[in-house]
Write a structure and sequence with these properties.
By secondary structure, this protein is α+β, with helices and mostly antiparallel strands. The chain has three domains: about 290 residues, no CATH class; about 120 residues, no CATH class; about 60 residues, Orthogonal Bundle (Arc Repressor Mutant, subunit A), CATH 1.10.10. It has 16 helices and 17 strands. Strands 1, 2, 6, 7, 8, 11, 12, 13, 14 and 15 form a ten-stranded mixed beta sheet that branches. Strands 5-4-16 form a three-stranded antiparallel beta sheet, with no helix packed on it. Strands 3-17 form a two-stranded antiparallel ribbon. α4 links the parallel β13 and β14. α3 packs antiparallel against α4, α8 crosses α10 and α10 runs antiparallel to α11. The protein is elongated and about 95 Å long. The termini are far apart. Bound molecules: adenosine-5'-diphosphate and magnesium ion.
Length: about 475
């Protein structure tokens, strides 16, 4: 679509992010939350809502939710009520979902995002606790629908932003940041493909300069950050097109189709659902004590933001380096292990962002599974700093060997592969002299000002020394001898 038309409108986006919490058992029963179990095997009488059964709140759920609240600078509700949200759906055994309507575990707060245009805070409306529903599986030929209740009663938090996001890019940055936070906090695995992190996007557009929000459309079913962005971009253009044609926007829920990148209407919000919220009489209100809050706070892990500041301040790294190194807590912690054994923090950063990270990406593993210990990598950096080996040999020959033989020290590997550099003049000098003697014409050219020839001489020296000559010393010797001879 023409930018001049798009620019006549302002998009308004609010996100609702559901995160499955990493508890071992469900929110109101002892049933397992394990993902991928055979259908309907993690379903006791409470999950199935048998008459006469009573829910009992899993305390851990509230602790994990409060951790997220702390990380988002939210206000924690000290008095919480669990409400019934009534609706009928085949995957909802009780005929209602237990959620928090008026007393969400966390109120307000924000998540900071960084994009090309800088850093900003995305404000939250609330975070509330609720239970997941089961899953309907429609058979492809349309003959039947089967229901798997394993997921029913798995604890969720829902993070709801205010309608303050204005671009698909910011929405993506927010979602990535939330995923990073829940992983740092160890409260959700953040896996969007398996549905443990899900995002609904509310999108509306209004004429530039207007202060009245447009009618919103809610888009569901995006299973990656990229798809959330695509769905929002598509939805903005679709709504602008309708308004330009003088047509209205229907308040509705739409589904995103990753195949064609379009959204399709599912149901209109015209017939407003009446959920008849009321406090669940089977669960008493929850009081959050000072002691409990203090205990949860003291168990908070370091957050990416704090580590970022620390890496910039203590290790003098650039914002770029600090950003990459804090992408996951595993990478940040690995980097810190390296720094415990070297003072060359910049080299440590380059190694972790370079060879280490590309190895991890290749293998699809996190840094805590890196076979090379922080100590061993620091030792390798030490060899380079002492001129015993150069970076390219270290990264191309020694590092891969360290991965295969994690118990071997880098110096031992370098020695065994005969890669230790000769930095003593006595061993390099004869090679330099030999090369100069062999190429008198090139020497002539060099003296006539063709300085580029130096590269060819260096290449010869390195080749004859099997890559072991210290390049700095070889260069110095060559320059001296070329002028002398
Ligand atoms: P609902 O009652 O439909 O769930 P809420 O007011 O609870 O609506 O808001 C749900 C989400 O929709 C929030 O993330 C909020 O920021 C967002 N939202 C509300 N109004 C708009 C709007 N006009 N345009 C875009 N997003 C909106
Ligand atoms: Mg909603």
């Amino acid at each position: 679509m023409d930018n001049s038309i798009l620019n006549k409108y302002k998009a308004v986006i609010g996100l609702e992010v559901h995160c499955q919490l990493l508890t071992l058992s469900k929110i109101y029963s002892a049933d397992s939350t394990a993902y991928g179990s055979p259908p309907n095997t993690n379903v006791g009488v409470i999950s199935l809502a048998h008459p006469g059964t009573l829910p009992r709140l899993n305390k851990r759920v509230v602790e994990l939710a409060i951790r997220m609240g702390f990380a988002c600078n939210s206000e924690i509700s000290r008095h919480q009520i669990f409400d019934r949200k009534n609706y009928f759906y085949p995957d909802l055994p009780k005929g209602y979902q237990i959620t928090q309507d008026r007393t969400p575990v966390c109120k307000e707060g924000f998540v900071a995002i960084t994009t090309k245009s800088g850093r900003k805070n995305i404000e939250l409306q609330k975070i509330h606790i609720e239970e997941d529903a089961g899953k309907s599986m429609h058979q492809e030929n349309g003959s039947a629908t089967q229901v798997d209740f394993n997921r029913a009663g798995v604890p969720l938090i829902e993070i709801v932003t205010k309608p303050v996001i204005s671009t698909a890019e910011d929405a993506g940055a927010f979602l990535s940041e939330v995923r990073k936070l829940v992983r740092y906090l160890d409260i959700c695995d953040g896996n969007m493909e398996e549905g443990s992190l899900r995002c609904d996007a509310n999108v509306s557009v209004m004429p530039m300069g207007s202060t009245v929000l447009g009618r919103k459309v809610e888009v569901k079913n995006m299973n990656s950050v990229r798809n959330v962005q695509k769905a929002i971009e598509y939805e903005i253009e679709r709504q602008v097109t309708l308004l330009e044609r003088g047509e209205g926007i229907l308040s509705e829920t739409r589904t995103f189709n990753a195949g064609d990148g379009k959204t399709y209407g599912m149901r209109t919000k015209e017939e407003l659902n009446d959920y008849r919220y009321f406090p669940d009489p089977d669960l008493s209100p929850l009081e959050v004590s000072d002691e409990w809050l203090a205990q949860i706070r003291s168990g908070m892990p370091a957050l990416p933001e704090q580590l970022f500041q620390k890496f910039v301040a203590e290790y003098s790294l650039s914002a770029y380096d600090a950003g990459v190194l804090t992408e996951t807590k595993e990478l940040a912690s690995y980097f810190e292990q390296v720094c415990r054994h070297t003072r060359n923090f910049k080299a440590a950063s380059n190694w972790v962002m370079g060879p280490v990270k590309s190895y991890l990406n290749d293998q699809g593993i996190l840094a805590n599974k890196c076979p090379v210990s922080g100590q061993a990598l620091a030792d390798l950096i030490g060899l380079i700093d002492k001129g015993q080996i150069n970076f390219s040999t270290a990264s191309q020959k020694v590092f891969p060997e360290m991965i295969l033989n994690p118990a071997m020290e880098p110096i031992v590997i370098a020695r065994e592969l005969n890669l230790l550099q000769e930095s003593d003049l006595d061993s390099i000098l004869p090679i330099v002299e030999e090369v100069i003697k062999e190429f008198p014409l090139k020497v002539e050219e060099f003296r006539n000002g063709k300085r580029g020839i130096m590269r060819m001489f260096m290449g010869e020296v390195m080749k004859r020394s099997k890559g072991k000559a210290d390049p700095k010393i070889a260069t110095e010797l060559l320059e001296k001898k070329l002028i002398e001879s």
